[in-house]
Amino acid sequence: MQYILGDLHANIRELERLLRQLSPASDDTFIFLGDYIDKLPHTAETLALLHALRREHTCVFVKGNHEFVWERYVLSQEKERGDFLREFGGREALQGFGRDVQNALLQNDFSVLQHALVSYFDLMTMMVDWHRTGEYLALHAGLLPEQYDQPSPRFLEKNFFVRPQDIPRERKYLNRYTLVAGHTHLGTEPTVEEGYINIDLGAGYGKFLGALCVEEQIVVRSDGEKFPIPKPEKAQKVL
Ligand SMILES: [Mn+2]
User: Fold this and answer.
1) What is the 89 CA–ligand 1 centroid distance (Å)?
2) CATH superfamily of domain region 2-228
3) CA of 207 to the centre of ligand 1 (A)
4) What would the pLDDT profile of 44-89 be if each residue is shown by its tens digit?
5) Start and end of every Calcineurin-like phosphoesterase domain (predicted)?
6) Distance CA 98, CA 110 (A)
7) Which of 77, 79, 217, 239 is most open to solvent, judged by the fewest CB atoms within 10 Å of its CB?
8) How many angstroms separate the alpha carbon of residue 9 from the centre of ligand 1?
């Protein structure tokens, strides 16, 4: 089986609950949709679990906007990126790291942050912008209209931030693939449209984590609830 998992935001409790629901076999694949940390404080434990999972399973780590920003901030030393992290959960992410590391985010001390978050930046070296599997294109947020017919879209910053209302959700990528995205928490049940499925079930807000099972066309929520993805209605054949 292949499972596409929504935004984690360090919600290790829901990740562990969901893994218990899935009870994965060793040849199962996990495709994560990004935003691994920030908002909740369990950074180190979450990253350790992700590294453990990738040793036992094939894992695909899609990059989220939080990874995009942390990378630009710490590795490219773009100081102005710190504002986003301080506002959207970076301070919570560093709660378990002690005062010096927490201050490093206030003072743009990149070497301290790079050292503290080494397992995060290790994971980032494996990340991809998007991943195609079955009839799905897994990505963090969305495509831009001009990318819908590009076989290998090159992501821009906007791809990691785009909101559902700005996505042509009835349109399929390459006329074939439905986008599977997170990034915007729309509700505690998946949102399913012709060309767009959202599985951010709110783990970053203390709610649920969801996994779309590619083969079974079902979303499993971390509390065990299951949501079948309705098959697209076939066009009526005119006799
Ligand atoms: Mn996001």
Assistant:
1) 11
2) Metallo-dependent phosphatases (3.60.21.10)
3) 15
4) 999 999 999 999 999 999 999 999 999 999 999 999 999 999 999 9
5) 4-187
6) 16
7) 239
8) 9
